[in-house]
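Our preliminary data section would be incomplete without showing what the modeling component actually yields. Below, a chain of 145 amino acids is followed by its predicted structure, encoded as tokens that our downstream tools consume directly.
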Amino acid sequence: MGEVTKIYLSKVKKEPRVEVKEGMFLEDFGLEGDAYSGIGATKQVTVFFDEGRKSLSEEPFPGLCFKRFLETLRISGIKADDLKLDTELQVGEAVFIVSKPRKKCYPECKIIQDGRRCALSLDVRFCRVLQTGTIRKGDSVKIIR
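Predicted structure:
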């Protein structure tokens, strides 16, 4: 079982996300009030793992996306490889389904040019919301299907 360690909200696209203690995640929409959520979108919620975020901070040459990328939810205690396409998760009161299992990398990124793998491509999962519910920092995360 995993745990929600951070929740981020962005009221305006391209503005920095801010950490919040809880959020209402709406079915087939995403985080209420978040500029990156939307009806029918494949990437309603972006999930990143604590381990992946930590590895970004240890990277000697920051990748192209490091500064501008920030997740909706950060979690710990679950392996990224266990969240494949169509995996369902209970996160707090909400239910998600993994709709895209990896973040795209760009060929102009130094990490890719050096032939290395970036934590953003390995440890990011995009999800759709299947069931509305409140999620709070510290809530449990478990794979249900």
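The mean pLDDT is 88. The chain has one domain: 2-143. Preliminary results of this kind motivate Aim 1 of the renewal.
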